[in-house]
Amino acid sequence: MKLFSQKLKVINIGLESFMKGLIDGGAETVNAEFRPPLNFDFKLMEKVKKNSAKIAKANKKALSKVLNAKPVLIGLDKAINVVPGMKRNLILHSGPPIKWKDMCGPMRGGIICALMYEGKAKNFKEAERLAASGKIKYAPCHEHSAVGPMAGIISPSMPVFIIKNEKDGNCAYATMNEGLGKVLRYGAFSADVIKRLKWMETVLYPALKDAVKEFGKIDLKSIVAQALHMGDEVHNRNRAATSLFYRIIAPRIIKTAKDVQTAASVLDFINGNDHFFLNLSMALAKASLDAARDIKDSSMAVVMARNGTEFGVQLSGTGNKWFTGMAPVPDALYFPGFSKKDANRDIGDSSITETNGFGGFAIAASPSIVQFVGGKAADALSYTLKMYEITIGENNVYQIPYLDFRGTPTGIDAIKVVEKGILPFIDTGVAHKKPGIGQVGAGVLSAPKEPFIKAFEYFVRKI
């Protein structure tokens, strides 16, 4: 009975508009962020409860595989020599499986560029005919222990980094990063793009290969950990990570390069490409997460990847099966002259970084990223805090200074995603939807719900 004689303090659950009358009336009000669960078969949740101990044990094991991984850069080689299952007529791409006829513009542009780079076609028309002829085979990078940003194209002659998880012995592979703008991974295929790729193959690759061989191995996990303390989230912002890598590799390049001009050109290229470490961060995440595959009864995601048409998810406990849904278009800051109507749907394997506990999941360590969409530093903090609600644990190495060095949220649990209605947060680049144009912006998005609902339902029925 004393309620109405006291100053009201109200927690609003539901639509924020409900708060207006309370605020207008002078009531102290806070809005609880309420999200209903995703629309799945609710009967399955009873089965989850009955098997909760078994699932928790499996998830703990899967997470420990990721946390204890020791990814190191051990060398470079041509894809045909080291990538498992690579063939002369095979081109790898980002995201889940897709046929040529269903590929988006940037992926088609990247494949056209790769075919001309490989010398299999002289021009755009020849390359397009060959790509559609059935003579060229396509497969996801993820099905060949590899990852690729944006279109994710890996062709046989392309040099790749070799990252070994010393804890479990598995390897992962990724190409070298070309830089931003008009590049193959964004679907560009002009003469200058191919010229750069050839320089990377004939100058950059040998120099880096010799330098890494001279060093022995490079601990990539420690670089990510340091970069998170320096303002990177190591997906869309890699300035610190690239600088740290540069400090390690520069003396070896100078020592092993065939001449001063070669050393200077290689060091200038790395120094001028803040995203150079991106491909390494993706490969170290891939090597860490692949160690957590095939753990019976684990609902932890080991892959989130996009091919520009579909968004795909794989879980530890469901083998190599893909669960897909339509890829969204990012909210982004666009380059002058471009807008959302020019943007392709989200594309790339780079969301493997979020899957491993950094990238968008660690965006509180890099609040500058939210400026892409007019956000504030508080928004970056909010995004990271939400991710703790859908993950199995916290990282033992990757930490966020602003949260008193709390470990980043790591190990996406498909059960928690659908039960809480909170979707993984990702920051990303944006490609033009037409082939040949390249990058048009950068932004953020949440993963679509469909892949997680499908993964959850399949996983639970399989228990």
What level of helicity do the residues show? 25-40%
Count of all domains = 3
- Rg, rounded, reads 23 Å
Beta strands, count: 17
User: Count the helices. How many?
Assistant: 15
Q: Uncertain regions: pLDDT < 50 for 5+ in a row?
A: none
Distance between the termini: 51 Å
Q: Main sheet: which strands, in order across?
A: 7-6-3-8
Strand content: 15-25%
Overall, the morphology is globular
> Mean pLDDT, nearest integer?
95
CATH homology group of the largest domain: Enterococcus faecalis V583 domain
User: Structural class, from secondary structure content?
Assistant: alpha+beta
Largest sheet: 4 strands, antiparallel
Would you give an account of this structure?
- Strands 7-6-3-8 form a 4-stranded antiparallel sheet. A 4-stranded antiparallel sheet has the order 11-10-9-13, sandwiched between helices.
- The model has no long low-confidence stretch (mean pLDDT 95).
- The protein is α+β, with helices and mostly antiparallel strands and 463 residues long.
- It has 15 helices and 17 strands.
- It has helices at 19-24, 44-50, 52-67, 79-82, 105-117, 124-132, 191-215, 220-228, 239-256, 260-271, 278-290, 352-355, 377-387, 414-420, 450-462; strands spanning 9-13, 28-32, 71-78, 90-93, 137-140, 159-165, 171-175, 218-219, 301-307, 310-315, 323-326, 331-334, 347-348, 391-400, 406-412, 425-431, 439-446.
- Helix 5 (105-117) packs across helix 6, helix 8 packs across helix 9 (239-256) and helix 14 (414-420) crosses helix 15 (450-462).
